[in-house]
Known about the structure:
By secondary structure, the protein is an alpha/beta fold. The protein has helices at residues 10-17, 45-60, 94-105, 168-174, 176-190, and strands at residues 2-5, 25-27, 64-73, 80-81, 112-123, 126-138, 154-156.
Amino acid sequence: MKLVFATNNTNKLQEVQALMPSHIExxxxxxxxxxxxxxxxxxxxxxxxxxxxxxxxxxxxxxxFADDTGLEVNALNGEPGVFTARYAGPQRNADDNIxxxxxxxxxxxxxxxxFKTAIALISNDELNTFEGxxxxxxxxxxxxxxxxxxxxxxxxxxxxxxxxxxxLELKNKIGHRGKAIQLLIKHLxxxx
Length: 192
């Protein structure tokens, strides 16, 4: 089975490829010749995932899935949420985003947060969505060199390490994207 993962993020692609069963050939946007920015201007994380998957299916004809992830911080009323990648501006710079987040939380006692990933799959002209959530806390300083995005400041509940300190296998097992991908894989297995 060939399936397009509608992302240009090589880090996400590597995480997801590590989870996919061997009978699924995962194609990137680059593999199908999609070089343009895929729109994601919806008001919800799930809405963005659906918009991206629909865009690829409509323009390129491939069965595909797309994800969108948001970091929701309780003390910031759920921000950055749908604006997670653009929290500090349109340049989508992870260091700038972390700097802004740590600044906004500097005098807050509640550092609880959750990562949420929504996946939209269009296969056989049918739309299905899947969601994975990982609850945790925002650390006061960056820790670790692995991962990407907010990983250096997100410590999942029950662990002493941030995502950026964890091996990919553990992050995929307990993390938001890994949980959503497992639901996607279970669904794909049912429609072989």
